[in-house]
Amino acid sequence: MTNEPAPDPTNTDVGVGPYPQPWPEDPRFDPALLADGDRRNVIDRYRYWRMDAIVDDLDARRTRIAPARLQVAIQNWQHDFNIGSIVRTANAFNVELVHIIGNRRWNRRGAMVTDRYLHVVHRPDEQALAEYCSSERLTMIGVDNLPGSVPLESTPLPQACCLVFGSEGPGLTEAMVARCQQLVAITQYGSTRSFNAGAAAAIAMYQWTLSHASAARLEP
User: Fold this and answer.
1) Where is this region: Disordered (predicted)?
2) What are phi and psi of 142, to 5 degrees?
3) Do residue 125 and residue 188 come from a single domain?
């Protein structure tokens, strides 16, 4: 079984219905989804696939762009709704790993179940993340409009990096800033002081893909 929420049989506008007989023999397909239809929020490529088969395929697609590696870290101090949104965006860009820093429990509502197709890990504090990134040779890039930050749009991002985001409002902690090798900020032209954290994360991940992830968009 997929462990997904049961599809609503009256909702014919989302996803696809039962697969016509004869069913494909590919083991990646889930018999329950073939029989009942697939109402999940997945791209057409993964319709009717088992969840573990989707994760395996996503992992394989990430290895195709090595040594380019993108991971994301999110500080979780306020049960911020934006965390789920950032996780959902990380899924869209097929990020290698998502780190939740601080509180183990995080607000999953905005993730829209996409966290089940990602590798999400917990780190207790800033030092634990820094030690992991050092061991993996990932450059920690803080995304926040703090003094000393440089424009994201004109700054080359490392091929192997971990983009680090703070909670909505307070942003990155001083301890996290001290462990980042660089700070970048998104140039703004209006009156607001800062971007929504979820929007900023989406812009930063997309900026990285412009240089390093073109192969990830190719079909095998």
Assistant:
1) 1-30
2) -80, 135
3) yes
